[in-house]
Structures
1.
Amino acid sequence: MNTATAIQGTKNAQAQRVAFFVPNGTIESLKWLALALMTLDHVNKYLLGDKLAGAFALGRLAMPIFAFVLAYNLARPGAMENGAHLRTMKRLLLVGVIASPFFMGLGGLAEGWWPLNILFLLALATASMYLIEKGTVANWFAAWAVFLIGGAFVEFWWFGLGFCLAAWWYCKTRSRAALLVWVFAAASLYAVNRNLWALVSIPLILAAPLVEIGMPRLRNVFYMYYPAHLAVLLLISTVLGIRV
């Protein structure tokens, strides 16, 4: 391989990177961390009556990390062209529907169903990103409609959607404006969480490029795990007679 070929190969590799680049294994590790924090939070909420010290605070990091991983993957060059947005939306909506009976059965929701689980939040965020990427004025209006109307029905509401979109913007541009909006979106989650622990996710994520972890990707694990862990929690809570 000559020098010119090597240089061109390096340029091609760099072109395939998002502006805010995190090694693939590290992205996968962040997803596993979010899974662990989500599980801890749900066990504490549904089985332990929020009595486990620190679990609620740590659990506030789960959604922001999941949102970042989604945003990062959809910000990758070529994501729009290879149909990643539509595939992701279909999976999120399908598994969100599958998980809904367990999520609702665990209790603690208004009218027994509201808000819808986090997979619907991520699906709406994906739809908004897709419409924005399409680029026409009509699609931008549609993206706003998805945000404003859909945000009323999902976990973390508009604040969670805003976090997803701000993270996506930062991943695509690494601009200061995007970072400021992202931090503001994290702080706005105070309206849901009644604390500012979501802000801790920002420095954690910003430090991720500094660490390269050789974690292999296990495709679709999250999609299988989410309804499965809710089903297990519902079974245990039913046997023990625990209601939120």
2.
Amino acid sequence: MTQFRTLDDLPGDLTGKVALVRVDLNLPMKDGSATDVTRVEAVKPTVLELCEKGAKVLLLAHYGRPGGKRHSTMSTSFIQGDVEKVLGKEIMFIPEVAGPVVEQALGILRAGDIGLLENTRFWPGETENDPNFAKAIASHGDFYINDAFSAVHRAHASTEGIAHHLPAYAGRAMAAELEALDAALGNPETPVAAIVGGAKVSTKLDVLENLVSRVQHLVIGGGMANTFLAARGVNVGKSLCEHDLADTVTRILDEADHAGCTVHLPYDVLVAEKFEANPPSLRTSNVHEVRPDEMILDIGPQATEALADVLKTCRTLIWNGPLGAFETPPFDAATIALAHHVAALTQEGSLTSVAGGGDTVAALSQAGVTGDLTYVSAAGGAFLEWMEGKRLPGVAALEKADD
């Protein structure tokens, strides 16, 4: 694993030092308060540890997509109260990210205090990764800490640029994420299985291309499985299916074959004439017996059991995407059953399980097993790009900083 510095590499006493900490505070809001503060909970250990060591902590974050100009409803001041609640500390809001206003605020903050800087995306230099903008922000800090894995796939000033101007470190959440991802794909215990679900193959082509050469078992679920079945000559009725990708899917199956990767497709499925909760036309069918007026909405119980048996032989699992239309019962059955199975294998110590992506996190939460997997990543885009085998600019900046 590529080495990077963590909080353990900082001195024990940081009194008089300023820590610039990139965090993800892009919280979902309703009626003026956050509906989910998971992202604040994630960075709490890093922020409080720096405060305890006596640093003045300046939080850098984006909020929404204001397009490089000030926007009245996208100020980070709106989330200040929610952040204070989670951290259990008062925070000073600073309406700039660089310049005399920030200097003045630092003069008022005492050792162990926290300042929340304005939305970094109010300035065009943020998304353009303008070196002068990054340098201006960096001029206020003694060191930089990135604890926002969900933003590392973007080469922005606050996620990548600042690391070129200050000693850079991974925060606690970032370090945990990078270690988990390394255990899953970087240097995993084999055999490795990957579950890739979701509606469309077209959105995950790069993921599939990367995984077939790196895992021993590839499980295809969701609407994507219909496209794979159709490419193999199965009549999928009126299921969601990208028929135009048949050649692409055939090529991926050939690549998997050459690489010694077994691709698992369902042989029994849950079908219905209409996509609705508990439809009267619901039945379990062999994949070769789907009628023209039916659609496949989940994998069947036999296929689920077969996958559970496959996972018993594996040491590592990467999971991105549900197996069926899990938001609508009973098409959540396979995803939830397999989630319980993965949780049990993880808890008994035979499987390292890493999952990520919005739908996957929601499905695991629905199954009540989020805390039972080895690691569940809340990062959507960054997690997907990591699965695609791409180099993440924010991570690369931390590695370079250690040269």
3.
Amino acid sequence: MQVVQSNLRGALFSLAAFAVYASNDTLVKFLGASYSPFLLIFFTGLLGFPLVTIMLMSDNSDGNLIPKHPYWTALRTMAAVLNGITGFYAFSVLPLAQCYAIIFAMPILITLLAIPILGEKIGIHRGLAILVGLIGVMIVLRPGQVPLGLGHLSALAAAFLGATTSVIVRKIGHAERSIVLMIYPMVANFVVMAVALPFVYVPIPIEHFGLMAAMSLLGLVAGLFMIAAYRHAPAIIVAPMQYSQMIWAILFGALFFNESIDQWTAVGAAVIILAGVYIVLREDRPGLSKNRPVLETRSRYDGGTTPRISTWMRLFDRKRMRAKVEGLAGKDGDA
């Protein structure tokens, strides 16, 4: 009974997290009609940086900021920066539901990239799920029937780049300090966006600046909800909840942008979601996946402006363990 209650809490926390994420994406779309992705990422990252800095300063583990895997770290950093740009642009120009449908291909791409990067062995079941998921992407895009714009390409790029960053973190995460995994994409984001800012800057009304601050806050709140979800429930329960964002996309799209989901986008999204859920279920079976790349990906697309959930949790776990050890040492000293 206790396990069921804990799993239920985890599911509810994850549903809340993805509702907050969807609200954040709605603000991205609203502000993206007036501002460049470079400007939005710069200010949302800048406004969220003080809170993130406090978390980074709490990492008292021994070591320096030199990565043990510099080439993988550089590739992941570059992918994270591009991931944020393409993701913000896609949400700015595409209908919310269509954008989510394409980005939901991330688990399929993670599974594909895990083969060369992690040495993951893919059997016929996951292989067929990958094929079905890619067919779902083609149903959404309908190449040859519907003109493909830069927004569609950006959404595909965001899915691919998000999958790339996730698989790289899975490959080097055990060796790198959490602060190294966090700080490089954030600093690179700040530098790249700052360089681009003079070319895209336009005056920002105070109310829009407040919405950018809200985006930073929403990203951090959603991250905290995700951490709470993984504290209460296993990944097999939390991970599929990401698809609840499609419900919010349809609702927010209709309410704020007068959008409606067309038949083929709905069919393609359903196919992609079913393929993603099946991959998650297969990964959870003992002995079928040594890396569990999708289940261990606890973040959405990697914009680099907020810490990844997996590295954030590692930092918190290390702090908790250190406090526990110090507490036990204190008791021994008193004795």
